[in-house]
Every structure is written in structure tokens, then in C-alpha cells.
Amino acid sequence: MDGGTSFTSVCINTAIYLPWLVSQCLKNGVNFRRGVVKHIADATLLHHSGEKADLVVNCTGLFSLFMEGVQDKNMYPARGQIVLVRNDPGIMATTSGTDDGDDEAVYIMHRAAGGGCILGGCLQADKWDSAVDPNLAVRIMKRAIALTPGLVSEGKGIEALDVIRHGVGLRPMRKGGIRTEREVVKGPDGNAIKVVHSIGHGGYGYQTSWGCAAAVAKLVDESVAEKARL
Ligand SMILES: Cc1cc2nc3c(=O)[nH]c(=O)nc-3n(C[C@H](O)[C@H](O)[C@H](O)COP(=O)(O)OP(=O)(O)OC[C@H]3O[C@@H](n4cnc5c(N)ncnc54)[C@H](O)[C@@H]3O)c2cc1C
């Protein structure tokens, strides 16, 4: 290793953070409706008032590659795999690369409030496989112990890791970066639908979420104001 740095940062336990966000929305009067949308136009029919929605915010992640009316061909998956363990090395750590290939990584993140410790990982572009790769899991655990030996008692190996579960996720990547923009889409009935896209957040959707949400709110306000002037 040529060099390193240490700093204080924020680590989000998403299992706690996401329900908190839902509770904030409920507190502020948001109406939740669950539904599966085939064409972006279908979303206009989900408004809680029973009226057709004036505008749709598209935040369907990777499904924007397939959704009728969107089909953004710049979207692609980047597969990630992690091991969640009960062990706590006392520090969080990562390196800028590994000796196991360009698409493999090492990071150790201990989540607040008993959320366990995440050992990662990888970033495998265009891989859709949602099954755990056991060989990769072994490499992840070995790299984590090599970087933070405090994960296990001295002299112990991966057998000393207390595994809670293995996980695989597909990051919603996008060639050209995050797409935050307005578009008018033609529905199957020929009617125009106002859409604001917020897709392609890749491996940084939490980090960018507050900024992206502010940008989306601005675009929605602009679109609604235009309608009011008509
Ligand atoms: C291993 C791994 C590690 C990561 N680490 C980090 C990190 O350290 N920091 C960070 O900021 N980010 C990280 N990310 C990335 C982060 O998880 C994503 O960027 C984020 O979840 C993207 O959010 P999103 O809302 O845009 O898309 P998604 O989370 O994919 O949400 C899309 C939603 O749309 C819904 N949907 C899709 N299609 C339809 C349809 N047809 N009808 C109705 N609903 C539909 C889905 O059900 C889903 O709820 C990581 C991801 C992985 C896999």
C-alpha cells in the first residue's frame, strides 16, 4: 500500500433510514399507493384523488431500461455482493483497489443501532445474476480480514466470522450519469404526459438523494407553473 488517509464520515443504516423517510412522508401528508406500472402513462391513473395525475416523477431505477414510454438504453446494472456479519472491527475501512481484479473491491462498514457489519464487495458491470457467488463471498471475507484484522481474534480466519446473511444487489447505473430532467412522453392513447426523470443513481443513490430530490422538486414546480400559465 502506497499511502492512506483517515477521516470522519456518515454511515447510514438503510434498514432504519428508509422506514424513517416513509414516516416523514406520512407525517407531511403524502399518500402512498402501491402498483406495478407497465407504461409510464399507467402511473397517471394511480393518483389518490381518483383524478388523472398532471405529472409523473419516474424513479424506477433499473426498470427504466424496460418501462414502456421510457426505455432509457443508457441504463445498465452493476452487480454488488456483500456479506453481513455480527463481528465489529472497531473501524470502517476501504482501499482504492484489490489484487483480485478491477471489478472487485474491499470495504468494511459497521451500521448503527445493531445493524451488523457490511463486508463488500464488487462492482460487476452488465451482470444481472442475483444469486450469491460463494467463491466471491470467500474472497470478500478474506480481503476484509486482511484489511481489518480486528474483525476476528488473532490468528483466526473467515471461519471466525459470524455471518448473518449474504446479499446481492444491482446498482442502477447509467451511461452519461444521473438523469434528472423533464420530458413529455406520448401515451398509448396519443395524449401527452409530463414526466420528470430521476434515474441512474448507480452506487451513490443515498449520497445524492437529497440533492436529486431538490432538483426534481424544482423541475416539478417549473412544470406545474407552466401549466398554470396556459
Ligand atoms: C452492494 C451495493 C452497495 C451500495 N452502496 C451504496 C453506498 O454506499 N452509498 C450510496 O449512496 N448508494 C449505494 N448503493 C446504491 C443505492 O442502493 C442505489 O443508488 C439506490 O438504491 C437507487 O435508488 P433508486 O430509488 O433510484 O432506485 P431503486 O432503489 O432501484 O428503486 C426503484 C423503485 O422503483 C420500483 N419500480 C421499478 N419498476 C417499477 C414498476 N414497473 N412499477 C412500479 N414500481 C416500480 C422498484 O420496486 C423500486 O422500489 C449501493 C448499491 C448496492 C447494490
UniProtKB/TrEMBL annotation:
EC numbers: 1.4.3.3
Main location: other
GO BP terms: D-amino acid catabolic process
Record localization: Peroxisome matrix
Residue stretches making up the FAD dependent oxidoreductase domain: 9-219
Molecular function terms from GO: D-amino-acid oxidase activity; FAD binding
Keyword Flavoprotein: yes
One cellular component (GO) term of this entry: peroxisomal matrix
Keywords: FAD, Flavoprotein, Oxidoreductase, Peroxisome
UniProt KW Signal keyword: no
Reactions it catalyzes: a D-alpha-amino acid + O2 + H2O = a 2-oxocarboxylate + H2O2 + NH4(+)
Top EC class, one word: oxidoreductase
Segments passing through the bilayer: none
Cofactor: FAD
Entry superkingdom: Eukaryota
Family, as annotated: Belongs to the DAMOX/DASOX family.
Protein name (record): D-amino-acid oxidase
